[in-house]
Automatic annotation (TrEMBL):
Coiled-coil intervals: none
Name recorded for this polypeptide: GGDEF domain-containing protein
EC nos: 2.7.7.65
UniProt keywords, alphabetically: Nucleotidyltransferase, Transferase
Highest taxon of source: Bacteria
Domain GGDEF: 171-298
Amino acid sequence: MENVHILTQRVSGRGDFLPFSAEHTPNNETTATHELVAELQTSLVIEDVLAIYAKFTKKLLNFTGLQFQSTLGTAQTSESDTNSTPYIFDLTIGREHLGQLIYFSKYPLGKAIESKLRSLHSALVYPLRNAMMYSRVLKLATKDSLTGLNNRSQFNDILSQKLENCRRYQRPFSLMLLDLDNFKQVNDKFGHKIGDDTLKEFATVLNSSIRATDTVFRFGGDEFAILIEDPEFKTNQVVSERIMQFVKQSSLMSKHEVTVSIGYTLAMSNDCDIEIFSRADKGLYKAKASGRNCAKAY
């Protein structure tokens, strides 16, 4: 990696200097860059990698925010102010395009500073790519590939955590199980493509029906679950009614006469995962036995 020379840059017309240190020697700069590389390799979380890089780079450039945009979404450092002028750099490794690194700064970037930042990017790209790969693997392990919802494995982990919090800290919650009515006939009559579209539509309905504190899961097929951060039956009723109303309003689901049956229960401090799941499942059975397209508590 070529040496990174730390310069000063005058802001045209202002008579002052950007905060770039001119007192470092090339050896000190090389040592600092090596230290940056070592620090960047201490985390596989994209936001942490950005934070480490930003802390180092802020010694060179007084930017107000740092953002990384990729196919995984947008990540940025905490307290980023993105109202300043954006300076966009493409990050690549060979022919692989990782994404765009965006600095937000009130000061203009001269050619020398741009060159310096591009040199620093060579220290960032490999740790950043490793963090991106880890994020993708983690997502595959915890997300349903069709709907993007959390999967059954993630449900088991989160349910166990919530039960432990319920026992130790008296943090009650509710479990809701959902099953699509008439879904099998959609697959049988119209094929799996329409069936998949229906499942994705229902996932959208569920995400639109819950609060930020609630979590949605797909177990597989047309079976779903929601963990609700509220111990009140009334909250479950409100969420259930909202889901059924959105399903009714969906042109795709209405066209194929797909509705939803729902069962829910409240967690108790002495519950285990089997007990709370069994009660919610009995609530779902009651909904099915009552003619479907309804919600029942147990």
